[in-house]
Amino acid sequence: MAKTAAALVVAAGRGSRLADPRTSLPKQYRLLAGRPVLTHTLNALGNHPRISHMLTVIHPDDIGLYDDAISAANENWSNKLMRAVFGSETRQGSVREGLKALSAVPCDYVLIHDAARPFLTHDVIDGLLGELDTGAEGALAATQVVDTLKKQKAPGHPLETVDRQCLWAAQTPQAFPLSRISRAHENAAQSGHTNFTDDTSLAEWDGMTVVLSAGDPANFKITTAADLRRAAQQASLLTMPQAVSTDLPLSELTDIRTGIGYDVHAFEDGDAVILGGVAVPHTQKLKGHSDADVVLHAITDATLGAIGDGDIGQHFPPSDPMWKGASSDRFQQDAIRRLAERGGRIAHIDVTIVCEEPKIGPHRDKIRVSIAGICHLPVSRVSVKATTSERLGFTGRKEGIAALASVTVRLPFEEGEGGPL
Ligand SMILES: Nc1ccn([C@@H]2O[C@H](COP(=O)(O)OP(=O)(O)OP(=O)(O)O)[C@@H](O)[C@H]2O)c(=O)n1
Ligand SMILES: C[C@](O)(CO)[C@H](O)COP(=O)(O)O
């Protein structure tokens, strides 16, 4: 049977080299295609079949940001995720805290990965695990240096050219047998070595032999503001549905339309309602054929309304057993695909949730982030509002929840329509 691996993601850094006067948000929580960087990183690891456990090392100030990053994930790996632990002043210290928390986990290997590298692929993971499977004590994802390298001992000194033939740029993940790298970290800490910048340097110091494995230029680390801009471009190309990533510039999407959507679901016995893809704890749940996500249903109808393409019930009949218990983001993905086929994209979403309970305020930001992720939008283009109906009507009697949505889309004018009206 294939040996299993734990993923240890270090996310406790402050990102001091990415100085941005507009925000103090650490880089691992900045948004790429509507989701935090960390969410992309965890998705890449969590969806790998040989990774059975995942642990994130976070900063104590980031608990709320971390919770948001997890709820934006919408992926099926939550059963692999362990409770996060707090990191330390240095990257090495943060890894050590993570390894301590993994000590009781029944995994053969550990993949240690930077939260700030969100574009990890399964090919890179497979390469590393393959090296361990054939007996390596440590494996490093790395890319060969491609630029001509120069060395200058001090400013004004003559340049020397460095032979790049045998030079590699270290990436993460870095993969090891779990017990061996844990021992190496303890040895380093007890000998007073506290500032190894990566785990293979520490492993080499402890006498381990590390082999190279194919990294990927796309798996770069977000370190500076320029890296974050590059990452934003890369993420939008990867996550947009095919037709949305059309090369039509926004300036040609001059046919601007708005659709409205409205939906209602009644309560029944349960312990949480799903709103915009987020499970909100409550004393009841919403009744429905799918997951009864009243917010996503209203958004889907509004998206379909904007392109005059029927409604959710027409495309996904409640009588069809296929949609029983379905996660409603599938319905919205389908509406986005229909829009994309016409060369269009969503520009803005505005939602109002009508209910007495549960209180939406504490969950509003999570719901915004989740909707933005599902719709491939920056969070600034999603608005979530809530109101009661002053105890009037079915929502006032706490019998259910209603949601209203308006979705604005941008499309190219169809041939023969002759440009803006
Ligand atoms: N004390 C630390 C320092 C770094 N990291 C993590 O290690 C990874 C790589 O480190 P780096 O790019 O240096 O991140 P920062 O320390 O956040 O950045 P900077 O050095 O610019 O402050 C990041 O995912 C970061 O969150 C960590 O968990 N604990
Ligand atoms: C672990 C690492 O990302 C490998 O490239 C790197 O060593 C982190 O430290 P850096 O100082 O940001 O290079």
UniProtKB/TrEMBL annotation:
GO terms for molecular function: 2-C-methyl-D-erythritol 2,4-cyclodiphosphate synthase activity; 2-C-methyl-D-erythritol 4-phosphate cytidylyltransferase activity; metal ion binding. Residues 1-256 are annotated as: 2-C-methyl-D-erythritol 4-phosphate cytidylyltransferase. Pfam families: IspD (PF01128), YgbB (PF02542). 4-CDP-2-C-methyl-D-erythritol 2-phosphate binds at D263, V264, H265, H289, S290, D311, I312, G313, T387, T388, S389, E390, F394, R397. Gene3D superfamilies: 2-C-methyl-D-erythritol 2,4-cyclodiphosphate synthase, Spore Coat Polysaccharide Biosynthesis Protein SpsA, Chain A. InterPro entries: IspD, IspD/F, IspD/TarI, ISPD_synthase_CS, MECDP_synthase, MECDP_synthase_CS, MECDP_synthase_sf, Nucleotide-diphossugar_trans. Residues 257-421 are annotated as: 2-C-methyl-D-erythritol 2,4-cyclodiphosphate synthase. Pathway: Isoprenoid biosynthesis; isopentenyl diphosphate biosynthesis via DXP pathway; isopentenyl diphosphate from 1-deoxy-D-xylulose 5-phosphate: step 4/6; Isoprenoid biosynthesis; isopentenyl diphosphate biosynthesis via DXP pathway; isopentenyl diphosphate from 1-deoxy-D-xylulose 5-phosphate: step 2/6. The record marks R17, K27, H289, T388 as: Transition state stabilizer. Residues 256-409 form the 2-C-methyl-D-erythritol 2,4-cyclodiphosphate synthase domain. Coiled coil: none annotated. Keywords: Isoprene biosynthesis, Lyase, Metal-binding, Multifunctional enzyme, Nucleotidyltransferase, Transferase. One of its GO terms (biological process) is terpenoid biosynthetic process. It catalyses: 2-C-methyl-D-erythritol 4-phosphate + CTP + H(+) = 4-CDP-2-C-methyl-D-erythritol + diphosphate; 4-CDP-2-C-methyl-D-erythritol 2-phosphate = 2-C-methyl-D-erythritol 2,4-cyclic diphosphate + CMP. A divalent metal cation binds at D263, H265, H297. Its cofactor is a divalent metal cation. Its EC number is 2.7.7.60, 4.6.1.12. In the C-terminal section; belongs to the IspF family. Bifunctional enzyme that catalyzes the formation of 4-diphosphocytidyl-2-C-methyl-D-erythritol from CTP and 2-C-methyl-D-erythritol 4-phosphate (MEP) (IspD), and catalyzes the conversion of 4-diphosphocytidyl-2-C-methyl-D-erythritol 2-phosphate (CDP-ME2P) to 2-C-methyl-D-erythritol 2,4-cyclodiphosphate (ME-CPP) with a corresponding release of cytidine 5-monophosphate (CMP) (IspF). PANTHER family: 2-C-METHYL-D-ERYTHRITOL 2,4-CYCLODIPHOSPHATE SYNTHASE, CHLOROPLASTIC. This is Bifunctional enzyme IspD/IspF. It comes from Roseibium marinum. The lineage of its organism: Bacteria, Pseudomonadati, Pseudomonadota, Alphaproteobacteria, Hyphomicrobiales.
